[in-house]
Amino acid sequence: MILIILIAFLYGCATVISKMINYRAAQELGTWNGSLVNYVVASILALVMLLFTTRFQVDLYAYVKAPLYLYAGGTFGVIAFVISIITLSKMKVFQSTIFLLSGQLLAGILFDLFVFGNLTAYKTAGILLVTVGILWDKKVTAA
User: Which residues of the chain are under the pLDDT cut of 70?
Assistant: First the structure.
């Protein structure tokens, strides 16, 4: 379990680093060109990783038979990327990251509620605690 927690923590670090690099790319190339560069490079890397981790045995039929909604992940990824680029030009990295975390928590809670049918008091308290923290930070930094 410690390894999974460490990996999740590293994912969080990588998300912020990626966001900052991509923000700079958008400043240099423009939002849409920066997005295109990001996703072309990511697609090439994903293809290379796929080929090397599956020993060049790719089941193309699996792509055809997969439910259509599974392809929405890429769409939401691009939307999230563009939104993060736009918000970084309007707020500090810390604030943007906190709102990203809050949105992820809320989406996770809603997903758990509607897909798995469970919503616990702990999950609700967690999102409220993060929201209070954001509001507190906003109040302290505005003073």
Answer: 56, 143
